């Protein structure tokens, strides 16, 4: 593989292209300044304006959300895994029908494997623009997003209508639902009973890992964060590992699965027989199966990254509470 070919498999943080109309709450006050990024795969955006950096999926999707302080992502649910780690800032994640069942605050580097089947939302509670990186289960990311009823109602008051085809229509731009397409129906009270309301203790204990704990656990070898044998035991269709300067392989290695490298801190160098590439915080690199390569920090100081590997497990629900 040539350096130019490898560059097409790297999405640089500085090259990320945002979509500001990705979801139904794009006009709702308090949520109208958020930016959605689709890095690998189509993600779950409801907007035709969403730019996709790498279309081929390795069995899961990679995305990101960027928000200024006090900006909120509205309550929604997924059928497959939604994993976030904080790249920049300080974030509050909350869940439940009204977002009051529980909450947790994540700092830079922390990771949250949000249980499927619950409504969840998040907001930037830091002082600067923040960024969270996401891994979504399945090639089609589980078929999209299910919104809490009040989110759809609020959006309609501000000009956005979601069709039952999963596409947004902006009445402020003169758009309307096409013939034969009805609005997305609201979940009934009976349907809402299927969405659990777990408290803080079980969710934080079983689905959250802290950056500095991972730094210690990965001091000498990669730390398995999400997976059947992971710190957060789960089988969402992919595995997540955490690597630091002391836990990288000593020699070249080859994997028979897709390997996605997501740099948290420090600068790294990816080397293979055809060349080498530098990776910086916020960069995402899709290493193809079967490529012999090495990975080393290129500078002194703190260095860490998440590595996502596809598995043979079928993407599906992860909530076990």
TrEMBL record:
Q: Where does the UniProt annotation place the signal sequence? A: none
Would I find Disulfide bond among this entry's keywords? no
Which Gene3D superfamilies does the protein's record reference? Jelly Rolls
Domain spans labelled Cupin type-2:
69-132
What GO terms are given for molecular function? metal ion binding
- Keywords noted in UniProt: Metal-binding
Q: List the InterPro entries hit by this protein, alphabetically.
A: Cupin_2 (IPR013096), GPI/OXD (IPR051610), RmlC-like_jellyroll (IPR014710), RmlC_Cupin_sf (IPR011051)
Q: Does the keyword Ligase apply?
A: no
Superkingdom of the source species: Bacteria
Its protein name is Cupin type-2 domain-containing protein
């Amino acid at each position: 593989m040539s350096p130019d070919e490898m560059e097409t498999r790297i999405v640089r943080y500085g090259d990320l292209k945002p979509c500001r109309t990705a979801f139904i709450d794009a006009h709702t006050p308090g949520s109208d300044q958020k930016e959605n990024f689709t890095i690998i795969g189509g993600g779950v955006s409801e907007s035709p304006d969403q730019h996709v950096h790498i279309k081929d999926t390795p069995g899961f999707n990679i995305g990101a959300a960027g928000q200024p302080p006090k900006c909120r992502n509205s309550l929604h649910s997924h059928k497959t895994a939604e994993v976030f780690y904080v790249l920049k800032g300080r974030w509050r994640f909350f869940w439940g029908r009204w977002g009051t069942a529980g909450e947790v605050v994540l700092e830079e580097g922390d990771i949250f494997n949000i249980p499927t089947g619950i409504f969840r939302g998040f907001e930037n509670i830091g002082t600067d623009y923040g960024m969270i990186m996401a891994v979504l289960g399945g090639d089609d990311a589980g078929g999209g997003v299910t919104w809490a009823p009040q989110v759809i109602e609020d959006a309609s008051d501000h000009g956005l209508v979601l069709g039952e085809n999963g596409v947004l229509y902006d009445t402020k731009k003169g758009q309307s639902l096409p013939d034969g397409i009805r609005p997305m129906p609201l979940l009934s009270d009976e349907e809402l009973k299927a969405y659990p309301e777990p408290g803080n203790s079980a969710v934080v204990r079983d689905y959250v890992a802290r950056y500095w704990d991972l730094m210690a656990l990965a001091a000498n070898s990669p730390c398995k964060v999400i997976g059947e044998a992971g710190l957060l035991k789960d089988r969402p269709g992919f595995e997540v590992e955490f690597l630091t300067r002391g836990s990288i392989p000593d020699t070249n290695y080859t994997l028979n699965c897709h390997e996605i490298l997501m740099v948290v801190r420090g600068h790294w160098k990816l080397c293979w027989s055809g060349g080498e590439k530098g990776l910086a915080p916020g960069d995402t690199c899709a290493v193809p199966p079967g490529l012999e390569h090495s990975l080393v920090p290129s500078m002194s100081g703190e260095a860490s990254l998440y590595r996502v590997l596809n598995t043979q497990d079928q993407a599906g629900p992860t909530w076990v509470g």
